[in-house]
Amino acid sequence: MTACQNQNASCGSCCGIHNLVFNSPGAKLELLHERRLEFQSVNFSEISTIVSYRTLREKKEESIFRFDRETYVCPFFGPLEKSEAPERQKPAFGCMIHPSITGLENSQNFSFYGGSICQSYDCPNKEKDIESMYSDFLDQNFPGMEEYSRLMADTLFFSALEKIRRTSEINLSESAAASLKYLCCCRLLTDASRHVTSFEIAKDRFENPDQEMKFLLADAIGKNTSDGRSVSAEAILFNIKNLTGNDSSSAFEEQ
Ligand code: SF4
Question: Please, what's the b/e burial string for 229-255 (b: 16 or more CB within 10 A of its CB; e: otherwise)?
Fold first, then answer.
């Protein structure tokens, strides 16, 4: 298992899926299933069918608003069949022309970036998460594609977290892990989290990590997390401190 394809969750943010802006919550999934349906027309022994799938999908999707106009959205990212990811317990999403699926060494050359770029790219978070502690934490706590991928590829959030506490240490304390989960839930409520691509670059413009994290979570304040906790500046600060290991765990639930 990798950060891109974990036990319960898939990423794929670098394929640009979150760069598309949808009007309704289910529209992204609908689009992905539509891709899969049309992908059935592809026959790998007929190159023209692969080229025509890509051209038609790009045309169909060009009217969907892009959060970042410069970031390409790859139509080969879609739901994988059970037989293509047999070890997965939950539905998997990924590259439908990955060589491990097609059995063809160069099948990703039909993508915009080409096989060598697709296969050699690892986002900064994946590169830094050497022991997979962060990706496994997300896999356990945020299974599925939507939340896992938005957190896994969020370079700004990961960079701020690492300054508070190295994510390789998150299994050291239950309380720290609970605080990390709270901050992740807050991050998912922000606008920036909805459009991550993994290409965002963290700028060192904050005097301290607390300030940086509070900035990244600012527009979550006043909302409720998906597990029903309210988000306030005080609760964020408390959990930042708790994540460093400098605070008691007992007060966490009260925030
Ligand atoms: S954004 Fe990172 S973790 Fe996600 S699919 Fe791309 S390389 Fe893998």
Answer: bebeeebbebbbebbeeebeeeebeeb
Distances in Å between the Cα of 38 and the Cα atoms of 32, 43, 50, 96, 108 are 10, 12, 11, 12, 18
Task: Decide whether any atom of ligand 1 lies within 6 Å of the 243 Cβ.
Answer: no
Task: Indicate whether residue 74 lines ligand 1 (CB < 6 A).
Answer: no
**129 and 250 share one domain:** yes
Tokens of 7: 């036990």
Q: Judge if the beta carbon of residue 61 lies within 6 A of ligand 1.
A: no
Number of domains observed in the structure of the chain: 2
Of 72 and 207, more confident: 72
Cβ 12 under 6 angstroms from ligand 1: yes
Q: Of 121, 141, 174, which residue constitutes the final position of a domain?
A: 121
Are 114 and 150 in a shared domain? no
The answer to whether residues 78 and 129 belong to one domain is: no
Q: Which atom of ligand 1 is nearest to the CA of 122?
A: 7
Q: pLDDT grade, residue 250 (50/70/90)? A: very low
The predicted pLDDT at position 209 comes to: 87
Cα(123) to ligand 1 centroid in Å equals 5
Going from the Cα of 252 to the center of ligand 1, the distance in angstroms, rounded, reads 31
Domain boundary among 121, 149, 176: 121
Percent of the chain topping pLDDT 90? 71
171 and 114 within one domain: no
